[in-house]
Amino acid sequence: MRELQGWIFDLDGTLTLTQHDFPAIRRELGVPAEADILTYMAALPDSERLAMKAQLDQIELRLAAGVQAAPGAVELIRSLHGRGLRLGILTRNLQAVAQSTLAHLGVLDCFAAEDVLGREEAAPKPHPEGIQLLLKRWRLLPAQAVMVGDFRFDLEAGRAAGARTCLVHADNQWPALADWHVADCRHLLAQC
């Protein structure tokens, strides 16, 4: 882990305490309970998709105002940045929400603006496009980078891109997808 040169992070539930109540968001948007919100939206006719997108954007911006750092997240980012490593964000949220969240946490200066990717800058996870874009920009091989997240989409995206993967979650629900598993960012900092 100490040899990695590129660190790509999910945001909600990884660097921040989980704040998205996805069942409530689905209800507010009128998305079926079992459906992935972004996949459901993508299948809608243009006018409906644009209206739902605007509604989802407002929900995310509202939620961003109350964001809290996950245990050890700020220290982890500061430590990696201080070592001169490449840092990126790959989130299914809006880029503006990600930037606002990073600013609220006090670590926006640790990320190059072009290395904060939201759902409009790259295909949403589990698609590997965002990781591939960052690796190309950083001129790194997939094995030199890790995708860090709290959900299987993060791990699946990392695997599909050929990168290493780290699950940040109390339980290792996807052991076959995670190269490393830690309970939180504080534990990750201790290992890297």
Automatic annotation (TrEMBL):
The keyword Hydrolase applies. It comes from the Bacteria. Coiled coil: none annotated. GO terms for molecular function: hydrolase activity. The keyword Hydrolase applies. Keywords: Hydrolase. This is HAD family hydrolase.
